Amino acid sequence: MHRSYADNIHGVEAILSRLKCFDLILTKDENQFIQDLIEFLSMFESTTTILSASKSYPTISLCLLLRMEIESLSRVDGTESLVIQEMKSLLSENFNNRFPLMPLYICAFLLDPS
Fold it and tell me: How far apart are CA 17 and CA 50, in angstroms?
């Protein structure tokens, strides 16, 4: 939905102007936040696709790889906006509790025949 909005910002603004709904038109800062959010969330797209099993069925052998991917995506590097930094901090804050590194994941990764 956000991508659809971002691709059609000018059209949405034109329609809202014609309808005299000026209070619904987002500011430049709000539009920038939407762009940052789209960029941040799109980094998780491949992981989400794998976990949702729409292309293939996830197996226990992928847990370690997916965990490492999510962990690296949630690191704050200082180049992103403050809101995205806060989201990354919140994501990584309880990461080990929500997705613990278990010996089973390591064994499954090492024994994966692929």
Answer: 41
